[in-house]
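Changelog note: in this version the structure field was regenerated for every chain. One regenerated record is shown below for reference.
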Amino acid sequence: MKPTVLLTLLLLATATSCTHSPKCPVSVLNADTTTTSRPPADQQAGLLIIDTLSKLWGDAPNVVGDFIGKPRCPSYLEGMYFDGATLVFQVRGDTLQARQELEQAAGSTAFRLEQATGRAYSQKTLDSIADLLHERYRAAMSHPLVRGNLSGFGTGVHRVYVSLVLNTPERRRAFRQQVMDSPALYFTGDDGHTPCLLRGTNDTLGISLTPEQPCFSTDSQHATFVLRNHSNATLTCGEHYTLARQEDGQWYVMPVGGTAHDIAYLVHPGGERQLTARLRPDLYGGNPGRYRFFTQVESGGVKLTLAADFSLCP
């Protein structure tokens, strides 16, 4: 069963640092339910066990769920998660003894044991793998196929999820060779071949969007555009955008990573504003060709999608 979990994904604000915190509240760490039509699982019995063990083995009586790895917690207990309504404890060693001790400590039998062996990675093992990944990434981040391509990573139930900006076989192979190769790694991210279904116009209702130049160098890190307001209403715009590239007559979305501030800028009648997009030649090689920039503005309560075509030239 493929796990679906709440990940602790870490956005990299810069290309020079990466931190992670693999801890995740046990109340939201769940094995996959795969469908959205099922009613929420009743996890009350498991939550009561967690509350009891937190008071018994945790360092702080008012903190629930943070007791694994604490001095008073048995060393054989290496993780826990919910599989639907069932609380699962990950244990290493003698499961019969572990069950007896856990039942006695929890005052309940409403849980299941999972033995931490082979590729049934426990949360303790995954945390160690994630810590090592962090160290190795910092050492390997100067490699051209690794640099700037990590969006974040975090631990799930049985995997370490690695989110790549550009998730292609070449980039995954480079990550495994230069950073870490482990069966516990599961890569996510777009491969750069998702069809772009957006539609937009470059001039409507007195509002226009044009590139500052029709062709940017293939070495350019950014492309810039001018939003002009010749309407009678004040526009609002932001920093979010979508880039697309044309290949064999088809437009594809270009994942470029990074962050954008959720902020609204005002463009008054007769005014203009410069907008900027990252081109990421380090990911896409600065290939010559046709590209398209999409952004959304709002005028008089109506949202409009604007688009501007441009080229990359040698």
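Spot check on this record: Residues 1-191 form one domain. Residues 140 and 178 are 6 Å apart (CA to CA).
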